[in-house]
């Protein structure tokens, strides 16, 4: 065969190899997607302006809070309208420790998570004896009474005025700007908590939570104690929300009772439902929804942003009834089927 003929064959072979590479990538997407997301997250703060970096940082903060809510709602089958309260517990724990006691901000994270866990455990014992609508109403009361409680102890919490803090500075050895340092701090905490959550769900405890979610009576027959595991799930969920609250304090450098109304709890629940209950990427997608959609709604109609926000929620749920993560999963499977047919 002459050289020109070989050159004509090579492009055809290369073109034929492309679908096989795409199929291999599709088969290994469970490993490829996290790597690509991590690479994009590492590059983003060096390519965006400070305000966009701040917005992405808040996406991680909300994703961390939704990680806990996903554990409770998506993997245990319970419902909570009070997670804004645990978020506030973590935020105020970090703020008081930093402002009143001059504790280094990094040390406030385990304290905020531990206190939120303790509060969640204490509330979980009586609360999780309820189900359905009764459980939702009782958990919502947690967020309702928290605001006046924070205002009452003004000598510690700053009352209605809240507490204004100094933003944590980036260590000099990093060479990072303040917003970039906070971004990476939020990313690191969220990634670490996601790994802990993943290990938990893959353990015997995770299987017990799924058994309780699917059929509580059958789980009890198999030796699983539903009340025990539901209480622990409530406490773990509160712990993640408390950790998110601490990181939120680092980023915002301000806490106020009016920032943690029942609307925050409703927003978080809407975020995890929109993101995808029980899914791996649901908290991240829900965090992006909680961060960006209210801003979009405000831009579309300044007079009635809540109306626009509600319409957007209805539209998303109509297009993706299993959440954005479910929509992405269906798109990936459809793409894989198309490649197999080729």
From TrEMBL:
**Keywords annotated in UniProt:** Cell membrane, Membrane, Transmembrane, Transmembrane helix
Gene name in the database record: livH_5
A molecular function (GO) held by this record is: branched-chain amino acid transmembrane transporter activity
The principal location of this protein is membrane
Note one Pfam family from the annotation.
Answer: BPD_transp_2
Q: Which InterPro entries match?
A: ABC_transp_permease (IPR001851), LivM-like (IPR043428), MFS_trans_sf (IPR036259)
The record describes its membrane topology as:
Multi-pass membrane protein
**Among the entry's GO cellular component annotations, what is one?**
plasma membrane
The answer to keyword Nucleus applying to this record is: no
Domain of life the protein comes from: Bacteria
Return the protein name.
Answer: High-affinity branched-chain amino acid transport system permease protein LivH
Transmembrane annotation, as ranges:
31-48, 54-73, 80-98, 104-125, 132-150, 181-201, 232-254, 260-277, 307-332
Quote the subcellular location field of this record: Cell membrane
């Amino acid at each position: 065969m002459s050289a020109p003929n070989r050159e004509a064959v090579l492009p055809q072979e290369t073109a034929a190899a492309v679908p096989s590479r795409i199929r291999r990538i599709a088969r290994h997407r469970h490993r490829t997607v996290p790597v690509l997301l991590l690479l994009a997250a590492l590059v983003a703060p060096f390519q965006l302006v400070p305000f966009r970096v701040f917005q992405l940082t808040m996406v991680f903060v909300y994703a961390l809070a939704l990680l806990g809510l996903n554990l409770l709602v998506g993997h245990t089958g319970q419902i909570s309208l009070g997670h804004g309260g645990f978020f506030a517990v973590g935020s105020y724990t970090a703020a008081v420790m930093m402002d009143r006691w001059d504790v280094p901000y990094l040390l406030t994270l385990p304290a905020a998570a531990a206190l939120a866990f303790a509060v969640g455990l204490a509330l979980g014992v009586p609360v999780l004896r309820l189900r359905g609508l009764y459980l939702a109403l009782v958990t919502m009361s947690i967020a309702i009474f928290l605001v006046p409680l924070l205002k009452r102890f003004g000598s510690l919490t700053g009352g209605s005025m809240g507490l204004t803090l100094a933003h944590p500075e980036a260590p000099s050895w990093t060479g990072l700007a303040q917003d970039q340092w906070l971004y990476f701090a939020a990313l690191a905490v969220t990634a670490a908590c996601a790994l802990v959550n993943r290990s938990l769900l893959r353990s015997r405890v995770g299987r017990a939570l799924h058994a309780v979610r699917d059929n509580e009576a059958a789980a009890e027959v198999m030796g699983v104690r539903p009340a025990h595991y539901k209480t622990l799930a409530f406490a773990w969920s509160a712990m993640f929300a408390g950790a998110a609250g601490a990181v939120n304090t680092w980023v915002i450098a301000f806490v106020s009772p009016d920032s943690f109304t029942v609307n925050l709890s409703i927003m978080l629940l809407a975020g995890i439902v929109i993101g995808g209950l029980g899914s791996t990427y649901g908290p991240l997608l829900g965090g992006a929804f909680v961060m960006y959609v209210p801003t979009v709604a405000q831009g579309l109609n300044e007079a009635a942003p809540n109306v626009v926000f509600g319409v957007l929620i209805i539209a998303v749920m109509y297009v993706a009834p299993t959440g954005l993560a479910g929509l992405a999963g269906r798109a990936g499977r459809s793409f894989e089927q198309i490649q197999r047919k080729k």
